[in-house]
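Comment thread on ticket #2218

A.B. wrote:
> Attaching the input chain for the structure job we discussed in standup.
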Amino acid sequence: MIQRDRLVNDFEAMSQFTAPGEGINRLAFTDADWAGRQYIIDRMVDAGLTVETDGFGNVIGYKVGKNPDLPVVMVGSHTDSVPNGGNYDGVVGVLSAIEAVRSMNDDGFDHDHTIAVVSFMCEESGRFGDSTLGSKAMRGALTVQDLHRLRDKQGTSLYEVLKGRSLDPDEIEQVEYKRPVKSFTEIHIEQGKVLEHEQKRIGIVTGIAAPERFYVTIRGNADHSGATPMNLRHDALCGASKIILGIEEIAAMQEEPPVVGTVGIVEVTPGAMNVIPGVVKLGVDIRSISEVARNSVVTLIKEFIDVTAEKRGLSYTIEPVAQDHPVAMHPAMIREIEEIVTSLGVEY
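C.D. wrote:
> Ran it. Output below, let me know if you need it in another format.
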């Protein structure tokens, strides 16, 4: 049987692995993240799992089934966080999987397939701008070039960070997971407010709205605020503000299937009250469960950026970060979860 107290203790312990600041600050590969990773490894070992790590730092704990030749049943999530994140985002998927294994041990439950509990590294985009990097590495979808390209705000590349953790980024393409996988299941908190609004305890995911992410750098002239008339200004921030509102409006126009657009990063240079902003960098995130709808919105946004820049006498560059593919969940998995939830009398 699942023991609530064990889970509560684990969540409390994981909440201590954080850098200073509001909420949880456990950015990928930082000291706090690495300490949290070790806690997960220790709990896996305590649960009797055989633990392996790969060249990206991903952690996999195996509970061998009666027929080890069958494809593995994989469960898990991640334990890194966004800045000022919550204590359950990602973590609940890893700790609940470990607790399920502990419960199986307590109950003497036998199973045919080997169970693989995985904790992916660097699933959040909070440090390097791109997300799901640990799982991409396990799918063979991450290259050495990607590791050199992706950098944090300090300019440190992911390649350098992996080296600093005594991992082997030059062999990243060998990290691909080779064992056959029967299924992958992840328990996750709700990141929006739909279930909360509907007062439902559980939601069964039917699709993943994958993002396209890119940086937009707008350049104007950093002139003196007091000596430059309004009609002679090329204010990068005013142009960026127009672009931000345009992204909101263009995304909102696409209703079915819906698309969401977010500008989560705004960096203004030189950042002085008496200097007209000369350079602004925007971090843009566009998502949808429909790749066609998302691509259409991205095209309109880029056209709007071009028109806005030309009208205001600005220049700009666009730097791609990620272009992931939306994924529909497997119908058999959805049906299986629906049957379980219904049998327990839980509304969803």
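A.B. wrote:
> Thanks. Noting for the ticket: The mean pLDDT is 96.
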